[in-house]
Fold:
Amino acid sequence: MEVLKSPLSASQKGKLISAGYTSINLLSSVSPSHLALELKISEAEALEILKTVSDGSRSESTSTSCTIVKGAQSAWDMLQEEETLVRITTSSSDFDNILGGGISCKEVTEIGGVPGIGKTQLGIQLAVNVQIPFDYGGLGGKAIYIDTEGSFMVERALQIAEACGDDMAEYSRLYRKGFHSHEVKIQPKDFLENIFYFRVCSYTEQIALINYLDKFITDHKDVKVVIIDSITFHFRQDFDDMALRTRLLGGMALKLMKLARKFGVAVVVLNQVTTKYSDGSFHLALALGDSWSHASTNRIILHWNGNERYAYIDKSPSLRSASAPYSVTGKGIRDSPSNNKRIKNM
Ligand SMILES: Nc1ncnc2c1ncn2[C@@H]1O[C@H](COP(=O)(O)OP(=O)(O)OP(=O)(O)O)[C@@H](O)[C@H]1O
Structure:
């Protein structure tokens, strides 16, 4: 059902539509805290909106708790789920720390940043790191890499894979507390074989591929990360019909959230950030911000601070807002060379 036809108040409809929630379906896997954050409203109001739309009628909203409760988790379940959330290391201990251990599976994480900040480097690093064996504190999984811009470079992936293979034992000893009793040496070739690469050249191809992922992951159960580099590229041009674009992005966002939950995979969407001037100063703005902003559970912004690269948690229902330095080296993503516990909580 379209939000416009729902029994919500005009102001609630306006807030939802301007945040990209054009259809009630898009709200199906959104938590009250997430919605409150997106719409800049109180959690109580967000809960009221979710109750109203889930019941389909404001007049019956007093009895909607049953509808909500049917699919609800207890707070204890949520805590346990949070604690058992499997994470993929970024190869920077500082970066991992602000993420609670790495990029979480079962969720959609958006990584935004200006050109050259290292989004693709991080994407490749995650496609490699997801393969770190369980004995080394990793997931022993495989990766899907969806390249919309032609950014993926296989020589660079090989370089990062070689370094990961070489450093795995030490890395696991230092940060991941793996319990390897015997050396497992993954060959760079094996790392590359476990990255399923898809090049998409139009938004229609991108939507078709995302619809196909359910089947692909069903057939390849060991896929643990899906990286889309970048999610908005084909949607930034050739669109006269903005409402259609918003609907397509919303549908894709919903599909990705469902995939993350159904298969327990980390969905990582990379996105461009541009600099906009308003209120007398420059601000970072995510590409297609308004029509896309509700799509991810977590959002991380990569940015320059002087000559140093920093990551900060821009949005997350469970992580504290924090920032940490990282660097891009020949080996891939690593701690900043001046790493001396400068993680800032904000
Ligand atoms: N082999 C390497 N050794 C050291 N640094 C490297 C290496 N390869 C890439 N880099 C660094 O990574 C940067 C490019 O990062 P990347 O391509 O991930 O940026 P991006 O954020 O994806 O940009 P865009 O939005 O334009 O795609 C280079 O400018 C360089 O600083």
In short: The chain has two domains: 3-72, 81-345. Confidence is low (pLDDT under 50) at residues 57-70. The first helix runs from residue 10 to 18.
